[in-house]
Amino acid sequence: MRPTGVQEALSQVKADAKGFGNGVANGVHRESRHPLIDGVVSLEEKRDMYGFTVRPQHLEKYLEHDKIYKEEEVHRSNRWEQFLETYTSTSDSRSNGRGGGETAIEGRGSCWGSLRAVEQAVLHKHSGVGNGDAIGMCPWAEEVKKLVWEGVPVSLRGELWQIFTGAKVRWKDGFYQERLARDANVVKPFAGPVEKPPRLEKWASQIEKDLPRTFPGHPILGEDGMGSLRRMLTAYARHNPIVGYCQAMNFLGALLLLFMPEENAFWTLTSIVDVYFEGYYTEKMTEAQVDQLVFTQLMRERLPKLAKHLETVDVEISWFTGSWFLSIFVNVLPWECVLRVWDVLLYEGNRSMLFRTALALLEIHAAPLLQLHDNGDVLSMLQSMGETTFDSSQLVLSACLGFQEIDEGRLQKLRTRHRPTVIAEMHKRSLDVRQWRTINASSKQAINGTTNGSVVAPLRITQGEETNTLKPQSNDQRRLINLEDEDRSTLEPHLNGLKGLDIAEFEERHTLNYQLSAPKFFSYEPLVSNENHFKNEPYGRIDETDEFEDTESSDQEEEISRLRKELEHALQAREEAECRAEGLKHALAEMDQNRHSPVEMEKLKAQNAQLKQSLADKHEQESATVEVLVRLEQENRKADDARRRAVEKAEENCETSARALRRAADELEVMKKRALAAEIMLEAMEKRAVMAESMLKAVEQQAADELRAMEKRAVMAESMLEATLNFQSGSGPRTKRGVEPKSGALASMDSC
């Protein structure tokens, strides 16, 4: 049973908040796809609280922030609980006054009936600030915005995302099942000969390739989860065939499935792709290119020093921000940051949060980036800095407050300014490729047509046959179309740079994607990489699960080998063309000698001129191919030099560290010896102190004995003196003072 009342919803929020703080996963069930796997990170599995793998090098830092995440979750849950208790009754009474029906919808979330206040705040936001009635109807809209900035509780995230995106409004009963009903009719039991199943959609194979790459090993996205994701992506592709399926949509759908049931996730995905990111995931990807130009301008305005530094080291920020925007920072930032960014983005109803988050991320890491002056180091840091940004509050608040003036109104003005440039470049490249196809098809027809007897025919024709045998093959439209189709298989992979890209995708995407070429935009890897940083890890960039099949280096190697083969074929074709031209000259000479008719001579001259022109075109193509080959080899050499410099630098750092360790060991040994000597000296001093103390006691004892002896002698002397005085007082006269003079014996005794 899903709670639909206010008290039940608040109880659920409170219980989840307590469970979050105590490390207990409350409310985890299959239907709601609650992402809170465990409140405490498992050190063995190394997974976070949402079930995603924590990379070993970031585990310690994540554990430090995990405590902060739990405290923030408890705080925001209490804040949302207080808000719902305060405003739900008011919003319900106002809705009842307007005659509104029940908000709760069976099977579409757990708290629809209790979140009417949030619904009204969202409606107020989309109705416009200048609407006085809307402001009077929803005085708590500003508080909802602040709550969203602080983050949405885990237990309410699925329901609130559906409210933010308008999934409830877009919902049509039975629509999702109708989109999936085609699969049930693909294979039916029948009697009789085997029938061919219906043709699979062109995007079905790509969906199957991307399913295993989507959050591999996640405990919720197992076999059942992959089935739900497959059905959801298939249903969307049939719902919107113009978009169909684009790589990166699998990550968006999978993330939604973690927070809501399958059909709810489908309607939320339709809102995100059709409304928020309209024009992003089409084959032309026009809006994605426009946004990159807009972001480049905003970066020059807000971060001019960093923008100039990147230009100095020959780095284009669009190489990275393109995938950031397409994936909405999934696999770019830690998951707590990703979800906080999604909260704000879905609430605002537009893409402005993408720009603010990217600028805030670059601003946070601007200082270390400015200290790097090597191209490879800058590329490596730009690709890895996102996964080390664990402070979600700093990132989101910096984006929302520090870049608050970058709103949808300003972005629309900038898009209007840059969109004609993108469209013009796309149109120009499309015309260039079409013109190349036409020229290449004509030249190939003129060269290869000799095998059918069109060029060397004058060597063996008679005068009466020239009308049929010398008829130009270029008039055969079907032949020209076949040649165009044949040339596509050889040239387009070279121009495209992506292995496995079919002709339709090349025509729409590669020729129209000028500034964000496919290899840079989708499968960029830094030139310096000592390991596969983004393989099967959750905090990598979008290519961490091998979403895109080839890296830039492998594409370049394949292009080089392909171009070499094409160059060899072109050289062989040129030699054959020269031989044929020589044969044609001989034929013209023979015809001149045989005095053939002027008409025949004119035709031969025209054919010779056409062959020369095709040969010149072939030379131009060869020159262009050689230039491309040379440029690719130069890029490879630069990449090798960068890798070599990085290895040398790493070896130098290792050697420096080893020397420092050796010096430290030597100093430690010296300090140990000094400490041992000091200990020995201390023991000797202690012994001396004991001896001195003993001697002092002996001296004191001796002095005491002498003092006692002197006291005894003094007493004896006094007694003798008294006796002498008594003796003298009776016999002799006294002195002037009444004291008789002492005798010599007594004087000597007194002196003693």
Protein described:
Mean pLDDT is 73; it is low at 1-44, 95-113, 129-136, 184-200, 450-552 and 734-740. The chain is elongated and about 190 Å long. It starts with 5 loop residues before the first helix and ends with a helix. It contains 28 helices and no strands. The protein has helices spanning 6-22, 59-97, 116-127, 132-137, 141-150, 154-165, 167-170, 175-184, 204-210, 223-239, 249-257, 262-276, 286-302, 304-312, 318-327, 335-348, 352-364, 366-370, 375-384, 392-402, 408-448, 466-469, 477-496, 503-510, 518-522, 552-593, 598-729, 744-751. Among the domains are: 6-164, no CATH class; 166-181 and 202-276, putative rabgap domain of human tbc1 domain family member 14 like domains (Helicase, Ruva Protein, domain 3, Orthogonal Bundle). This is Rab-GAP TBC domain-containing protein. Residues 726-752 are annotated as: Disordered. Keywords: Coiled coil.
Architecture blueprint of SSEs:
Blueprint: H1 6-22, H2 59-97, H3 116-127, H4 132-137, H5 141-150, H6 154-165, H7 167-170, H8 175-184, H9 204-210, H10 223-239, H11 249-257, H12 262-276, H13 286-302, H14 304-312, H15 318-327, H16 335-348, H17 352-364, H18 366-370, H19 375-384, H20 392-402, H21 408-448, H22 466-469, H23 477-496, H24 503-510, H25 518-522, H26 552-593, H27 598-729, H28 744-751
